[in-house]
Each structure stands twice: as C-alpha cells, then as structure tokens.
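Sorry to interrupt, but I need a hand with the structure work. Could you write out one complete protein record for me, on any chain you like? Could you add the entry underneath, on a fresh line?
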Amino acid sequence: MDPTHHQLPGDQPDAAEEKHFAEHDEAAEIIDVNATEEDAPMDEDDDDVDDVAAAGAQDDDDDDGMMELHDDSVQGFFEHKQPVHCVALHPTHPTIALSGGEDDMAYLWNVATGERLHALAGHTDSVITAAFNMDGSLCATGGMDGKVFVWNSATGAQVAALEASDEVMWIHWHPKGNVLLVGTNDGQAWLYNLPSGNVMCILAGVHTAAVTCGQFTPDGKRVITGAEDGTLAFWDPRTATPVFKYTPDDGRWFQEEVITAIGVHHNSNIAVVGGSEGTARAINLTNGNLLASFSAHSSSIESITFSRALPIAALASTDNNITLFDVTRMAARATLRHEDAVIKAQWTADGLHLVSCSADRTVRVWDARTGAQLHRWMGHQEPILAMDMTANGETVVTGGDDGVCLVFSPLAPAPAAMAGSSMAH
C-alpha cells in the first residue's frame, strides 16, 4: 500500500461531499452568540422551545439528608468488581452489551437476562473505552495500559492485540468498515486495519498533549481530533495530513482550555467543539471557517451530539446542564437540568428525544421539541459513568461508579421503590 495514500472503506467520490451546511459556508467572521437576544422559533412547523428546567426534576432527599433508594432498572449485570467506565450496545443484536471497568476486565453480556456471555481478559489496567464495529461482528476495548484488544463478538475470541504508543484515551470505529481509530495520551491518533491489526497511518504533528477526543466524520472520509493543549485538527486520513487546524495561537480559538468534546453533524459538514471551561466553537468543515463562539456552560463540556431531525446539537456539561443549541440560528434554545454533572447525552434515532445520564445517579429522557422530561430513572448507588442505548431508545444501559451495569426501558413498568431503603448522599 502506498504509505501516503490509505484507502478507507467506502472511499469513493460522493456528490454529497460538496453539500454545504445551511447558509454559513461563506462566513467571514465569528458570530458571538453570547449577546442577549429574543428567541425565535426553530422552524414554523416546530414547537417553540423555551429555556426550561426539568419538570419533576426534584430530588428525593428528605430533611435529614438521606435519599430513598429507588430501583427503576429492569435488569443488571454485576460481575464488575470496580467502577464501570464504558458500555456499548451491539448495533444489530440489542440484547448484547459490552462493558469495561477499573477491574481491568471487559465483558459481553445479555441485556435481557443479565447473563455473562464472555469474559474478555488481557488488560492490565482500567478498561476505559469500548465499542462495536458497524455490524457488530467485532468489538474493541482500550485501556490505560496502552493496549487495544479486538474481539469476535459472537465467540469472545481475541482477534487482534494492538499496541498503542501510550495510554489509550478513546477508540472509534469507521462507520463503513473495519478500520479502528485510537487516540493516545502522547498526542497521536492511530488508524488500524482489522482483522489484520496492521497500522494504516499515524496522525501526528499537531497535538503536543493527550488527544482527548476524536472521531471519523459520519461519511467516513475525514477524522477530527482535539487535545489537551487546546489544538484541533481536521485530517485527511488517506494522506495522514491535516486539512486545517486550530491552535490557541489563533485569537479566535480556545485560550487555556482543554478540548473535551466534539460533535459532528450527520451530513459531515459542521462540527461543534467544547472545552474544559464550558465554551464552544462551531466550525464549517467544508472550508474550515469558524462560524460561532459561545459560552454554553460554566464548566467542562463532556459530550456533544446532533439530532438527525432538528437543527440542534446537545451539549452536556459538568455544570449539571444540557444546552440545546440551534446550529441554524447559532443560538441556545433550551437548558435541561440535572442535579449533578451530566456525563453524556444521546439522541434517539428519530432525533426528537434525548437521553442523558448524570453523576446525580439518574437517567432522564427528554422531548427536545418542548424541553419536557418524559422519564427519570434511578437505580445506581453511585454516579453514572457511562451510557449507551438502542437506536429507538427502548433499551438504555448504564455503567456506574458502584461497579454495576443497569438496564432501563420506558416499555417496562418501573419496579416499586425498595421498602424502607435509604442511603446517605
């Protein structure tokens, strides 16, 4: 293979690559969206979304600081002996889950029964990231030991052992094939071809500190990465070179902030990037123009994800809030509130409902059109650290600091609260 040109799955000319996002392609300057303005409806056909707090979001504290312990879960997995850092659901068999934890173990297990299917051993430090490939035939786990293992999802057999250059920060599968992207603590991102495990290329030379977040664009043609040193790079993985980059030397970019989260629109033409101090930037990926700069939160933004039906990105933060940001108007449309840090927010496939998990030990389901809270589930005794769900939102799996994985479903009746149970905050 030519080392300067790496063929990726589905790597063919695509007319959609030229499709521009809304009306922001020729933006010549940043829009400062923090100025106060009167909100207008997102669309004539959409319900207007006001700035709303969570309906029914009151906690269950009593006067002496004790909290009644409810368990709304419909199933659980209890073999992890220490905090669970990552969970993932199989893309085509939604009863199969993957989890990894601080006990250096990963497991494949049955969501319906809680039964262990396969124990995935081999890591010598915490398993902090895990994911299935596009069809679920393979899954991968990454650890603080600098190792990535790829497994056969059906048998649990190890397919490949990948040695990264440093502690693994995250992994991300190509959306159309068996290429795995791995971000590491030393400022690099690696592309591996599976099942061979061969290194396709190394994305290096931009970041000087840990690559804290990154992913393939949904069309699979580009890679975007952000780092602890505040740099962002948009890569052509076929040549392992950046198409464009931003650094703190650019006065319009993040200053003294770690880049903590990246979300890319499903058309692969706009990204929203979040930082450790709660500020964010919107970027046109077709030309590299900076579209907007805004203070979305007062502390770190932990996840960013786009709706497929509404022109909205959901930004989840450790300041206990989720901002619904309208990327057509470049303005915040709503605030959804937890009682503690929000770890992740994820859209259902219809793009109308958002599911979030928090250190307040709850999972919540929201109607993004109205801001109404539809469900609020409890069950963990410690903060929730990870979450994934089926595309229709009918099954949600969480991993907690209590070493437990729980399953929640809006289709199942919630169990009654445990009589007489209480716990201190």
Summary: The first strand starts at residue 31 and ends at 32. Residues 13-31, 35-66, 414-425 have pLDDT under 50 and may be disordered.
